[in-house]
Specification:
With 247 residues, the chain is mainly alpha-helical. The protein contains eight helices and two strands. This is Thymus-specific serine protease. Keywords: Glycoprotein, Hydrolase, Protease, Signal.
Length: 247
Amino acid sequence: GDLDDPRDQWMRTGNGLLGFAVKANDPTCPDPYCNVAKICEKMAAVAAETVAESESEEQRWLEALVTIENANSPPSNDKTPNIKTRIEWVRNPATRGHDKLHWFLKCTQFPTFDTCSTGSQCPWVRMDNSLKYFFSICKDAFNITHEEIVRGSAETNQRYGGKSVNNTDNILSINGDVDPWLGLSVTQSQPGSPAIVIPGAGHALWALMSKIDDSDFKKYYDEILEVVSGWLDLRKPARLRRGSSLQ
Protein backbone atom coordinates (compact mmCIF):
# COMPACT_ATOMS: atom_id res chain seq x y z
CA GLY A 1 0.00 0.00 0.00
CA ASP A 2 0.91 3.68 0.21
CA LEU A 3 2.88 3.23 3.43
CA ASP A 4 5.42 0.99 1.67
CA ASP A 5 7.07 4.21 0.48
CA PRO A 6 9.00 5.93 3.33
CA ARG A 7 8.01 9.26 1.81
CA ASP A 8 4.35 8.44 2.42
CA GLN A 9 5.19 7.34 5.95
CA TRP A 10 6.68 10.78 6.54
CA MET A 11 3.73 12.61 4.96
CA ARG A 12 1.30 10.90 7.31
CA THR A 13 3.35 11.51 10.44
CA GLY A 14 5.01 14.84 9.61
CA ASN A 15 3.11 16.54 12.43
CA GLY A 16 3.35 13.56 14.72
CA LEU A 17 0.57 11.19 15.68
CA LEU A 18 -1.16 13.57 18.08
CA GLY A 19 -2.90 15.93 15.66
CA PHE A 20 -0.62 18.63 17.01
CA ALA A 21 2.27 20.50 15.41
CA VAL A 22 4.96 21.20 18.00
CA LYS A 23 5.87 24.46 16.29
CA ALA A 24 2.33 25.71 16.97
CA ASN A 25 2.64 25.34 20.75
CA ASP A 26 0.46 27.86 22.58
CA PRO A 27 1.05 27.83 26.36
CA THR A 28 -2.20 29.76 26.95
CA CYS A 29 -4.60 27.63 24.88
CA PRO A 30 -7.70 26.49 26.82
CA ASP A 31 -8.56 23.19 25.11
CA PRO A 32 -7.53 19.70 26.29
CA TYR A 33 -4.21 18.47 24.89
CA CYS A 34 -3.76 21.65 22.84
CA ASN A 35 -0.14 22.28 23.83
CA VAL A 36 3.02 20.46 24.84
CA ALA A 37 2.44 20.84 28.59
CA LYS A 38 -1.08 19.38 28.51
CA ILE A 39 -0.01 16.46 26.32
CA CYS A 40 2.91 15.72 28.64
CA GLU A 41 0.60 15.85 31.66
CA LYS A 42 -1.66 13.28 30.00
CA MET A 43 1.20 10.95 29.14
CA ALA A 44 2.71 11.31 32.62
CA ALA A 45 -0.65 10.41 34.16
CA VAL A 46 -0.86 7.32 31.95
CA ALA A 47 2.65 6.31 32.99
CA ALA A 48 1.65 6.53 36.65
CA GLU A 49 -1.41 4.31 36.23
CA THR A 50 -1.44 0.70 37.31
CA VAL A 51 -1.89 -1.63 34.35
CA ALA A 52 -4.81 -4.03 34.73
CA GLU A 53 -4.09 -7.69 34.09
CA SER A 54 -6.51 -7.69 31.17
CA GLU A 55 -4.79 -4.73 29.52
CA SER A 56 -1.39 -4.62 27.88
CA GLU A 57 0.89 -1.65 28.40
CA GLU A 58 1.00 -1.10 24.64
CA GLN A 59 -2.80 -0.91 24.52
CA ARG A 60 -2.85 1.67 27.30
CA TRP A 61 -0.37 3.93 25.49
CA LEU A 62 -2.21 3.50 22.20
CA GLU A 63 -5.51 4.51 23.80
CA ALA A 64 -3.86 7.62 25.25
CA LEU A 65 -2.50 8.57 21.83
CA VAL A 66 -5.92 8.07 20.24
CA THR A 67 -7.57 10.23 22.91
CA ILE A 68 -5.15 13.09 22.24
CA GLU A 69 -5.36 12.71 18.46
CA ASN A 70 -9.17 12.75 18.47
CA ALA A 71 -9.23 15.84 20.68
CA ASN A 72 -6.95 17.75 18.32
CA SER A 73 -8.08 16.28 14.99
CA PRO A 74 -11.62 14.86 15.03
CA PRO A 75 -11.95 11.72 12.89
CA SER A 76 -12.53 12.44 9.20
CA ASN A 77 -13.13 10.45 6.06
CA ASP A 78 -10.74 12.68 4.12
CA LYS A 79 -7.77 10.74 2.79
CA THR A 80 -4.32 12.27 2.79
CA PRO A 81 -3.00 12.17 -0.80
CA ASN A 82 0.01 9.93 -1.31
CA ILE A 83 3.36 11.25 -2.45
CA LYS A 84 2.74 10.29 -6.08
CA THR A 85 -0.50 12.28 -6.17
CA ARG A 86 1.15 15.28 -4.50
CA ILE A 87 4.02 15.34 -6.99
CA GLU A 88 1.62 15.10 -9.92
CA TRP A 89 -0.28 18.06 -8.45
CA VAL A 90 2.91 20.12 -8.17
CA ARG A 91 4.09 19.25 -11.67
CA ASN A 92 0.80 20.36 -13.19
CA PRO A 93 1.38 23.91 -14.57
CA ALA A 94 -2.26 24.77 -13.92
CA THR A 95 -2.10 24.23 -10.17
CA ARG A 96 -1.75 27.14 -7.78
CA GLY A 97 -1.37 27.27 -4.05
CA HIS A 98 0.75 28.16 -1.05
CA ASP A 99 2.12 24.61 -0.69
CA LYS A 100 3.51 24.63 -4.21
CA LEU A 101 5.33 27.94 -3.72
CA HIS A 102 6.46 26.88 -0.26
CA TRP A 103 8.14 23.75 -1.58
CA PHE A 104 9.64 25.58 -4.56
CA LEU A 105 11.34 28.03 -2.20
CA LYS A 106 12.60 25.13 -0.09
CA CYS A 107 14.14 23.55 -3.18
CA THR A 108 15.68 26.74 -4.57
CA GLN A 109 16.62 29.09 -1.71
CA PHE A 110 15.71 27.99 1.80
CA PRO A 111 16.08 24.19 2.23
CA THR A 112 14.56 24.13 5.72
CA PHE A 113 13.86 20.41 5.61
CA ASP A 114 12.62 18.93 8.88
CA THR A 115 14.79 15.83 8.82
CA CYS A 116 14.29 12.77 11.01
CA SER A 117 17.25 10.42 10.77
CA THR A 118 17.86 6.93 12.08
CA GLY A 119 19.77 7.02 15.36
CA SER A 120 18.34 10.40 16.38
CA GLN A 121 15.73 11.12 19.05
CA CYS A 122 13.31 12.46 16.46
CA PRO A 123 9.76 11.39 17.45
CA TRP A 124 8.53 10.79 13.89
CA VAL A 125 9.36 8.29 11.15
CA ARG A 126 13.14 7.90 11.06
CA MET A 127 14.94 7.20 7.81
CA ASP A 128 18.53 6.20 7.10
CA ASN A 129 18.96 9.33 5.02
CA SER A 130 16.02 11.65 5.49
CA LEU A 131 17.67 14.40 3.44
CA LYS A 132 17.59 12.05 0.47
CA TYR A 133 13.81 11.95 0.84
CA PHE A 134 13.49 15.73 0.56
CA PHE A 135 15.98 15.93 -2.28
CA SER A 136 13.93 13.35 -4.18
CA ILE A 137 10.80 15.49 -3.84
CA CYS A 138 12.63 18.49 -5.31
CA LYS A 139 13.88 16.34 -8.17
CA ASP A 140 10.56 14.65 -8.91
CA ALA A 141 8.42 17.77 -8.51
CA PHE A 142 10.61 20.54 -9.95
CA ASN A 143 13.51 18.69 -11.60
CA ILE A 144 15.88 20.45 -9.20
CA THR A 145 18.95 18.38 -8.35
CA HIS A 146 20.73 17.89 -5.02
CA GLU A 147 23.64 19.96 -6.30
CA GLU A 148 21.34 22.81 -7.31
CA ILE A 149 19.70 22.81 -3.86
CA VAL A 150 23.08 23.04 -2.12
CA ARG A 151 24.24 25.80 -4.46
CA GLY A 152 21.02 27.77 -4.03
CA SER A 153 21.26 27.57 -0.25
CA ALA A 154 24.87 28.78 -0.28
CA GLU A 155 23.97 31.70 -2.54
CA THR A 156 21.07 32.67 -0.26
CA ASN A 157 23.28 32.65 2.83
CA GLN A 158 25.91 34.69 1.03
CA ARG A 159 23.38 37.23 -0.20
CA TYR A 160 21.61 37.74 3.13
CA GLY A 161 24.48 37.00 5.48
CA GLY A 162 23.01 34.01 7.29
CA LYS A 163 22.55 34.66 11.01
CA SER A 164 24.70 37.78 10.78
CA VAL A 165 22.20 39.30 8.29
CA ASN A 166 25.23 41.16 6.93
CA ASN A 167 25.25 43.30 10.09
CA THR A 168 22.13 45.09 8.89
CA ASP A 169 20.39 47.19 11.52
CA ASN A 170 16.72 47.90 12.23
CA ILE A 171 15.82 44.20 12.12
CA LEU A 172 13.87 42.75 15.04
CA SER A 173 14.07 38.96 15.37
CA ILE A 174 11.26 37.42 17.45
CA ASN A 175 11.17 33.73 18.34
CA GLY A 176 9.39 31.32 20.64
CA ASP A 177 11.74 29.12 22.63
CA VAL A 178 9.83 25.91 21.77
CA ASP A 179 9.69 26.64 18.05
CA PRO A 180 11.53 23.77 16.30
CA TRP A 181 12.87 26.32 13.82
CA LEU A 182 14.59 28.27 16.60
CA GLY A 183 17.98 26.80 15.71
CA LEU A 184 17.81 28.41 12.26
CA SER A 185 16.85 31.84 13.54
CA VAL A 186 18.67 34.85 14.96
CA THR A 187 18.36 34.60 18.73
CA GLN A 188 21.20 36.86 19.87
CA SER A 189 20.89 40.63 19.70
CA GLN A 190 23.29 42.44 17.41
CA PRO A 191 24.11 46.15 17.25
CA GLY A 192 21.01 47.86 15.90
CA SER A 193 19.12 44.58 15.54
CA PRO A 194 17.69 43.20 18.80
CA ALA A 195 16.37 39.68 19.32
CA ILE A 196 13.46 38.68 21.56
CA VAL A 197 12.85 35.08 22.66
CA ILE A 198 9.42 34.37 24.18
CA PRO A 199 9.33 31.49 26.71
CA GLY A 200 6.90 28.70 25.90
CA ALA A 201 5.83 30.20 22.59
CA GLY A 202 5.66 28.27 19.34
CA HIS A 203 6.13 29.42 15.77
CA ALA A 204 4.91 33.02 15.18
CA LEU A 205 2.47 32.72 18.08
CA TRP A 206 2.83 36.41 18.94
CA ALA A 207 1.53 37.31 15.47
CA LEU A 208 -1.97 36.13 16.36
CA MET A 209 -4.30 39.04 17.01
CA SER A 210 -6.02 36.98 19.71
CA LYS A 211 -2.87 37.22 21.83
CA ILE A 212 -2.59 41.00 21.92
CA ASP A 213 -4.64 41.32 25.12
CA ASP A 214 -3.18 38.19 26.72
CA SER A 215 -1.39 39.11 29.94
CA ASP A 216 1.30 36.48 29.34
CA PHE A 217 2.29 38.14 26.08
CA LYS A 218 1.61 41.81 26.76
CA LYS A 219 5.11 42.57 28.00
CA TYR A 220 6.55 41.22 24.76
CA TYR A 221 4.17 43.29 22.66
CA ASP A 222 5.20 46.32 24.71
CA GLU A 223 8.85 45.51 24.07
CA ILE A 224 8.24 45.11 20.33
CA LEU A 225 6.35 48.41 20.25
CA GLU A 226 9.14 50.17 22.13
CA VAL A 227 11.81 48.91 19.72
CA VAL A 228 9.89 49.84 16.57
CA SER A 229 8.81 53.20 17.98
CA GLY A 230 12.44 53.94 18.77
CA TRP A 231 13.39 53.28 15.17
CA LEU A 232 10.61 55.46 13.83
CA ASP A 233 11.02 58.13 16.51
CA LEU A 234 7.65 59.63 15.71
CA ARG A 235 8.58 62.94 17.30
CA LYS A 236 10.94 63.70 14.40
CA PRO A 237 10.07 64.58 10.81
CA ALA A 238 10.12 61.54 8.53
CA ARG A 239 13.27 62.69 6.77
CA LEU A 240 15.18 62.66 10.07
CA ARG A 241 14.02 59.29 11.39
CA ARG A 242 16.74 56.71 11.72
CA GLY A 243 16.83 54.36 8.77
CA SER A 244 14.65 56.56 6.58
CA SER A 245 15.57 56.79 2.91
CA LEU A 246 13.82 60.13 2.56
CA GLN A 247 15.98 63.16 1.85
